[in-house]
Amino acid sequence: MSHDQAFWLPFTANRAFWKSPRVITGARGHYYTTDDGRQLLDGFSGLWTCGLGHCHPKIVAAVQEQVATLDYAMGFQVTNDKAIALAREVAALAPAGMGKVFFTNSGSESADTALKIALAYHRARGEGQRTRLIGRERGYHGVNFGGLSVGGIPGNRKVFSATLLPGVDHLRHTYSAADMAFSKGQPAWGAQLADDLERLCALHDASNIAAVIVEPVAGSTGILVPPIGYLQRLREICDRHGILLIFDEVITAFGRVGAPFAAARFGVTPDIITTAKGLTNGVVPMGAVIVRDGVYDALMQGPEHVVELFHGYTYSGHPLAAAAGLATLAAYCEEDSFARARAVEPIFEEMIHSLREEAKVVDIRNVGLMGGIELAPRPGAVGARGFEVFLKCFEAGVVIRNGGDVLQFSPFLDSTPDELGRIFDTVRQALRTVT
Ligand SMILES: Cc1ncc(COP(=O)(O)O)c(C=O)c1O
pLDDT grade, residue 276 (50/70/90)? Predict the structure, then answer.
């Protein structure tokens, strides 16, 4: 049997894929090259990853130099210079008081790491009964068991339902089509949805709750922008009850919402921030969990020779990833990427909302350079219409993404109006030809 199709693709309809494979062989700047020699405009910055563009020369050079200097160094009880330097840079960018950085290899690992740190923190403070974790419906925190358990995407949970972590509950999600459809930026309605946390505090008793984890802007479920005041209210309730607040910023960190972190954009500082993706511009897999100083300090007790947190990965702080991260953060600064993204945002907003009158469009949502166009599902075939629009755009030379029937957009931080115009014109044509 031939092994030509040995690769089992993640989050992919594999049988459909192999009937007409979509294979990328190169990339530069804002374009991909395919195996049949076509150039595609990347309207998704990789997979929310490559805000600076592909094959950024300074990141490429940094990784090339690093691989020839230090390929790998033991990461337990020993470390490497680049990991130390990157942690310092990440902490400098983080909200004040969040000065400790734990490295992972992905967003999923960042989510599970954050949850474990929260549990360990309470136990170290003598509140070991605080074991309950609160996520949110429609949330996405990766695919490992912790993140999956606090996540709220039914399709991801279904098959694993009986094996998810016990002691987890979920806030209701923040979407109400009737109250917020076609909002531009943050919806005015919905701050009171945060009060759902008070309901869970009453139900479980707040003294049993360790942490609440939310995406400041829910990405994978189809771009749910937090109502004005919602995150502030979550913060207040967490403070009132001694609950840690975790922002999963795997998508929103590093410029995607026109700021280093969504925490900065929305003016709410959590206790823990999870990141990945944009940390290295997607060039080498890496995540980072950024922790409030007091959380770290609480764990620094007992005899000094004893490991304080029994957690870590062989590749935590990998020198290649850290070199990519250092070059990435330097490029964000040199190119003023976060401010540029903020400057592009109104153009992006206007263009995405220009599709409002298209048949089949039931909502459009956006903040920063994140956008979603929700289509009415085709009766009896939920997700088919979204997938077909994705395929038609791909054929027409533009890469977007569909999460079911929500078309998703994540353009580069330095996108030009012409590029954005091409992306949305292509989508418009595709929408006019799908049934
Ligand atoms: C908010 C959020 N958390 C976690 C993850 C998981 O990241 P990874 O796929 O790197 O494990 C993602 C991925 O898209 C994400 O959007």
Answer: very high
